[in-house]
Amino acid sequence: MKKPDIYFIGILAISIVVLVPVSFTNQGYFWDEGAYISSALALSGKENYNIFTDRYPLISYVTAFGFVLGADLVTINIIPALIAIGSVCMIYLLGSLLFDRKTGFLAALFTTFSWYFWGVAANILSDTISLLFFITCIYFFMRFFKTKSKINAVISGISLGIAFMARSQTMLAIPIIFLFITFIWILEKRDYKKNLVGLIILTFMSLVVIYLETVFTWFDFEHIPAAITLSSSPVDFDIISNITKWIPKTVYYFSFVPVILVLYYIILTVKKIDENFLLLLIGLFATTLPFVLFTNWTESRFLLLAVPFIFIMAAKSIFIIKEKYSWKIFYLVLAIALLSLVIKPSSTGIETGWDNLQRINKPNTEFIELCNIVKQNSNENETIGVTSMAHPAINIHCERKIEYADLKNPERLKNLSIIIDITENRVENITDYDLIGISGSYEIYKRN
Predict the structure, then answer these.
(1) For the whole prediction, is pTM greater than 0.85?
(2) Domain positions in the chain
């Protein structure tokens, strides 16, 4: 009888204990998330909300299924929790397939305790479900690479298609598959000095993938040719400034990729350790494992697809340190790595990942101001529209029936008594409403 995989059982239990509470800190304040929830409520027949056709559909369908089963706006957070737990388990399976169970377990552990992963996992967004199916795609592709089984190739292709449905930019991350292959090839050859060219290729491909992801994060495939040629964009967006904006950000945020690879090469080639080398190792894991330590997760969440590659490589590197040097150094580096994953610099100093999560998921001043305006300028019988995609969350926290005021669709405004606009004077052309007040950054319009 085959023994149960204690590493898999362990990471499954840990991820449930950690990620379920993380997901339930979510209170629906993120505007993008509001669009997905609104579409899900409309698809489930629970509310007559807008379906945002410009958003990726898969997460809305999955969330709608949760609403059909009876979830409300609080219990629906089990959806991102299950997706996050599934992603962690797939990272374990992928690391185990590529190397061994210990490497897979450590990579999955890094993911589970990463505040960066928490920020994304706690929200109903297209990013996490795309990650789940992208890891599944890579896992079965690697099984095909090793076994040549056609069924693995079919499952890999289906998973990639679902990942694309979840978020179209997933296709830009396909080179990550080849990064894995190159990485494994270098490890299996063992002659690291002769395979320096492979490391250079790996570094270059990493930077190319990251740059493509950052530049094209806001674009679908029909917009990519315009971006490549620097011609005018078919959408209302200055694509040239977007590209130039991301050049320094790519260098600033993600310069750790070549740093990891260079130091990794040193780890593999240096025969004896000295004080300076130890400092390099500490610097490697203290500054690179947090993945995007100094960034806002809402801005960098589209790089989530690189998480499996970064953490599996880091886990394997740590075990190589254990094999080549000593347990003391292994535990030191491991402790620094885990510590760097659960703490985060902030404007007020150092905070834990949990504190950061509570801070980004609590009502901000803009949200509180909006709720106060709603309560002061309406009664329970009036239908209120807000030009904010976060209206499902506003329903919970403002104790009013609130709909999304779609300013591009005047027909949907006919049932609204009051419109609260946060989009800077975009309602003034609608003749059926009069401006009755201004509060902070909000304008209040009432049907005349």
Answers:
(1) no
(2) 6-28+73-359, 365-447
